[in-house]
Amino acid sequence: MIRLKLLLILAVSSATVFMSCNSPTPEYKKKLFVETEPIQGLSFDRYEEVLFHLDTADFQRELKTIQQQYDPFLEGDLDNPEAVSYLKKFAVDPLSINLYQKVKRSFPHLNEVEGIVEEVYRHFHYYYPEVMLPRHIFTCVSGVDPEMPPVLCFDDALVISLDWYLNNDVVYEQLGIPQYRARRTSVEYIAKDIAQQLYENYLYRDVKHNSLMEEMVEVGRKDFFIEAMCPEMADSVLLGYSSSQIQWVEGNEGMLWADMVGGQYLYSTDLEVYRTFLLDGPFTNEYSHDAPPRLGEYVGLHIVRSYMNLHDLSLQELMRNGDLQGLFLDSHYKPKK
């Protein structure tokens, strides 16, 4: 393990909180509140409402009747007994049915989900009008598989697993989902997860980075893109932090940066350094149980914000910039101690 000096945990006074809540809107943020045009032609289908009402006595025939409409879920060979058996086991599994019932109670209609999708799509279209996003949006119950993202984006469909948004329901604990992950299951995370999938589908480039600093800037740029898609999103949602974790990192940002610079971690390629600053988890043990995970992501986001505050650039220009070290140097990021 790398050895990091212990940070002094700074108390955040009520006066400081009051001042931060009333501070002027930063320049970068003003650029994100853009006038967007309504998105036309979106259609929404609830696969979970259909799947859990099929007649299991004649399941294969029932599946074939809906295969064309729900192709993203049923594109396999429905003449294959194993495929049909797998789907049937899922549809009659008590856990799946329980998740479906919880989804039905939490989302009796899709009005809120439709609004979230349309907002993210509007912002994406403003910046990338040449990209045709999938117009068919499906919701489903996926079984809360931690190996699969809660939102999937295909060429012709966007799929949202509503059972990932049950607001920290007890079912996540029953399924063994860590508490820090279960905390990120409220409805406001749908927008973040959609924006992240759009980033990964249309903008992400698999480039090998040479240091922790470049990795931090890359993930910070991804977060900045998500913020551009959802400009009213709170930092706690954007970063997946609790309110107390946000307070900790804001109160300790200057000392964290001094430690990263003084410890010569910025240009490190050591795996343990990467794990300390970028690995997800309940907290960053090397600093404090109150410190949030992925401190490098927090710093990377603020480097990008600082850069965009100082430069009159569009989101597209930011995302095309391949010189991450130059971006870092031109950000003049230096938080107060």
Would you mind describing this structure in some detail?
With 337 residues, this protein is mainly alpha-helical. The chain has two domains: 43-202, no CATH class; 208-331, no CATH class. Helix content is 52%, strand content 5%. The chain is built from 19 helices and four strands. It has helices at residues 14-21, 27-32, 47-51, 59-66, 71-74, 81-92, 94-106, 111-127, 170-174, 179-182, 189-202, 212-229, 235-239, 243-251, 253-262, 271-278, 295-310, 315-320, 324-331; strands at 43-46, 136-140, 151-153, 158-161. A four-stranded mixed beta sheet has the order 1-2-4-3. Strand 3 and strand 4 (158-161) form a beta hairpin. Helix 12 packs across helix 17 (295-310) and helix 17 packs across helix 19. The two termini are 26 Å apart. The relative contact order is 0.13. Mean pLDDT is 92; it is low at 1-21.
Give the end-to-end Cα distance, rounded to a whole number of Å. Answer: 26 Å
Major sheet details? 4 strands, mixed
Oligomer designation: single chain
What helical percentage do the residues reach? 40-55%
The strand order across the widest sheet is: 1-2-4-3
> How many runs of DSSP E, i.e. beta strands?
4
Radius of gyration over all CA atoms, rounded: 22 Å
Secondary structural class? mainly alpha
Strand content of the residues, in percent?
A: under 5%
- Element string (H = helix, E = strand): HHEHHHHHHEEEHHHHHHHHHHH
Gross morphology is: globular
Mean pLDDT over all positions? 92
Quickly count the helices: 19
Runs with pLDDT <50, length 5+? 1-21
For the record, the count of structural domains works out to 2
